[in-house]
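User: I'm writing a tutorial on reading structure tokens. Could you give me a worked example: one chain, its sequence, then its tokens, then a sentence or two explaining what the tokens reveal?
Assistant: Sure. Here is the example chain.
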Amino acid sequence: MAVRELSSLEKYLGLKKPNKYSTQGDKKIPVLQKNNGPPLTGLVTIACHLAKEAKRPDLLGDSSELRAVVQQWLEFRVTKLDGCPKEDIKTILKDLNCYLQDKVYMAGNQFTLADAFMYYGIHSLMVDLTIQEKEQYLNVTRWFNHIQHYTGVRHHLPPVVVLKNRIYNSRHH
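And here are its predicted structure tokens:
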């Protein structure tokens, strides 16, 4: 999955020459072998490298504080979300829902790598949610729908249907 995400990121960034990736270990950690240097290992490391290569530092955050927030969410994605046990999914969605209550993006007021990779990371969770569950995590659903319609992000993933109007009121949950 990580290799497909990196390929989608390359397309989004407009990188002309696609990179070749391999994976290592049971968790299929992506590896990028560059001609002029040591291999780069890990989703976050490679994604940050690609953003810099494409001269898109804005995707990493435009201040030291925002760069730290972007890094925090990229680490969250790799350490907490990837391989998350099924029993922890609702807790993660609840925490994300609280975080996104007053936010349009994961970090600051613009789209960053944190948005792209959190979107990729929760896509399969959102596909499996019922309409009622999507309404229960309304902030996550709103953010997710916004990001899935962000130009160039959803390359390899099918769209997730999100209703614009609530069907259920909160008394029925």
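What the tokens reveal: The two ends are 34 Å apart (CA to CA). Strands lie at 21-24, 29-32, 40-41.
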